[in-house]
User: Which sequence fits this backbone?
């Protein structure tokens, strides 16, 4: 059976709703949707059009209103949710929400950005090493993980258009790319998109400035990072560019996962 999991940084769930995101979602109907940058707390959304029929929704909100926040929508109610990764400064910003379905976990994750200045880059850098250690532990715990989200790093030159001019900019710094090398190397995780799509021009974020969207001058910073077992079951991956709900595009990956007795059957 096919398991369809989407990730989308909406840069404001209310703004994306006004641009038709939830009508489009109703037509797409992924099994699980991971949202980043809700920029709203759940209480601010109650009674609005943010809870489509058939979906269970959970949120990890930032303490600060109008900032960050992640969510997971699923057609099947998860066995459990786990909010936060155990690092107070990160968890206060609402950057990690795990939904568990049997022995499969789907996580919505939003890596801090360092683009606003040295202070935020320092927070990002300080988080990356503890995160990698946590991910290594997860990779060895016997569960399968799909971590969908905005990782705020373009891994290689193939993952952004103007890589030469961005080598000193946050998101493409040498130590950030080396960290991704380790994540996808010794840490044991897989870039699900690259299992089936090897093109150089597949981006997921474009600046609102100039003609970046029209010229496809983008960055691939939204990923599905998975454990190897489910990473080997990727069927296809696609970036949706026909509509623009945000400065990011939704990324969907389909998995062959695998029979009615498996944990994935709980997702339907």
Assistant:
């Amino acid at each position: 059976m096919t398991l369809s999991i989407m990730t989308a940084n909406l840069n404001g769930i209310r703004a994306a709703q006004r641009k038709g995101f939830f009508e489009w979602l109703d037509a797409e109907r992924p099994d699980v949707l991971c949202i980043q940058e809700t920029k709203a707390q759940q209480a601010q959304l109650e009674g609005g059009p943010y809870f489509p029929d058939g979906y269970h929704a959970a949120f990890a909100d930032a303490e600060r209103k109008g900032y960050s926040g992640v969510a997971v929508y699923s057609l099947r109610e998860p066995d459990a949710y786990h909010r936060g990764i155990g690092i107070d400064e990160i968890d206060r910003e609402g950057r990690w929400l795990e939904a568990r379905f049997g022995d499969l976990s789907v996580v919505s994750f939003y890596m801090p950005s360092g683009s606003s200045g040295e202070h935020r880059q320092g927070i990002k850098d300080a988080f990356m090493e503890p995160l990698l250690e946590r991910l290594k532990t997860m990779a060895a715990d016997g569960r399968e993980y799909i971590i969908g989200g905005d990782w705020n790093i373009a891994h290689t030159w193939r993952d952004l258009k103007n890589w030469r001019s961005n080598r000193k900019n946050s998101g493409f710094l040498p130590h950030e790319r080396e960290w991704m090398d380790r994540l996808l190397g010794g840490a044991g995780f897989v870039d699900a998109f690259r299992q089936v799509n090897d093109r150089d021009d597949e981006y997921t974020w474009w600046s609102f400035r100039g003609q970046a969207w029209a010229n496809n001058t983008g960055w691939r910073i939204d990923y599905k990072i998975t454990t190897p077992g489910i990473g080997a079951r990727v069927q296809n991956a696609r970036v949706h560019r026909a509509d623009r709900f945000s400065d990011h595009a939704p990324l969907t990956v389909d998995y062959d996962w695998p029979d009615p007795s498996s944990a994935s059957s709980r997702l339907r």
Helices lie at 13-18, 21-28, 42-45, 88-91, 118-139, 174-183, 228-231. The CA atoms of residues 93 and 154 lie 22 Å apart.
